[in-house]
Amino acid sequence: MIRSKFRKFTSGTSAASAPLLLAVLSAALFGAATPASKLLLNGFTPNQLAGVLYLGAALGSLPWAFRGSVQMPWRLDSANRRLLLGSVVFGGVLGPVLVLFGLKAASAASISLWLNLELVATAMLGAVLFRDFMGWRGWAAAGVATLATGILAWGGGAAGIRAAVLVALACACWGLDNQLTSLIDGLAPADATLWKGLAAGAMNLGIGLSLSAWAAGPVMTALALAIGASCYGASIILYITSAQRLGATRSQVIFSTAPFFGVLLAVVVLGEKLSLVQSGSGVLFVSALILLAKEKHQHAHKHEAMEHEHRHSHDDGHHGHRHPGGRPEAEHFHRHGHEQRSHAHPHWPDLHHRHEHD
Prior knowledge:
Blueprint: H1 2-11, H2 18-40, H3 46-65, H4 78-103, H5 108-114, H6 117-129, H7 136-155, H8 157-183, H9 189-211, H10 218-246, H11 248-255, H12 258-268, H13 276-293, E1 298-303, E2 306-312, E3 332-338, E4 341-346
Antiparallel strand pairs: 1-4, 2-3
Helix pairs in contact: 2-5, 2-10, 2-12, 3-4, 3-9, 3-10, 4-8, 4-9, 5-12, 6-7, 6-8, 7-8, 7-13, 9-10, 10-11
C-alpha cells in the first residue's frame, strides 16, 4: 500500500520535479526529528527514546527492504560485518543518545543548528582516517562551522557549552557512521537501515530499561515509533531514491537543509524564540555548507580489477558490465566485476575512489 501510494505520487509529478520534491521531503522529515524528540523526552529517558526511534526506523524501512530479497548481515564477510557493527554502535547507539542528552540542556533550535556539524565531521574524518581528499574550501568550512558552534555555545552559557559538546560528539559519531556505511559492500541501503534500526534500537532500549523504569504510555510509544519510522526510516529511503535521480552531490546539498527545517519547526511548533546569536550562527553554518558544496576534486587515478556487490547504475562511467537481455535503466543491486582502468574525472571518495593522494 505504501509503495503504491509512493509510485502514484512520483508518477503524478513531473519527471523533473519529483526527485527534487523527494529530496526536500526527506530533509524536512529528518529535520523534524529534533523538535519532535524534544517533546517526546517528557515521557522517555534519552536511551529509551533513542531505542524506540530506531526501532521505528526499522519499521519505516520495511516496505522498501522487502521489495526485493532481504540481505542477511551474517552472510556478509568479516570485514563488512565489522563495518556494519561500527555503523550500528556509532551511528545507531551513541550518536542518537548524545543528541538527546543535549536536547535536555538546550533548545531544539540550537540543537538543530549544531547538527550542521555532521557534514563537516564526515569530511574531516574522511580526510584524517579514510584517505579522502579535502581542499582549502573543506578546511575553511570546518573552521567556519567550528566558529559558529562556539558562538552558539557561548550564547547559551554553561548549559549551552555542555549541549554543544554533546552534539559535537554525536556529529563525530555520525560522521564516522557515514564513512563506515559508505564502505559496506553487499548490503542494500534499505537493508542496512533495517538491520541498524533493529540492532541499535534493541541495544538502546535494553540499556534504557536497565537504568530506568518504563513510564511512557501506549499513545506516546506509538507516536515515538511513528516519528522514528518517518523521520529516520522513510526519510533515509526518500533520500536514497532522490539521489538515484538527482545524483549524490545535488541530493546531499538539499538534504543538508534538514537542520534548518528543524529550526523552523522549533519556532513554529514549539514556540521557541530565535535569538540574534542563533541567527548569526545560522548564517555562518550556511556559509560553511556552501563552501563544502563547492569543493571540487579531479585528477588522473587508477582503478584496480575487483569484484563486489552494491547498488549502482550504468550511467556513471564505472559500470560497463553486461546483463542478459540488455542493461537495466534503473539502479539495481547485484554482484559484478570491474576491469583495471585509468582515467580522470571529478569524483568523491565512494566505493570506487579510495585511493592515495600526494
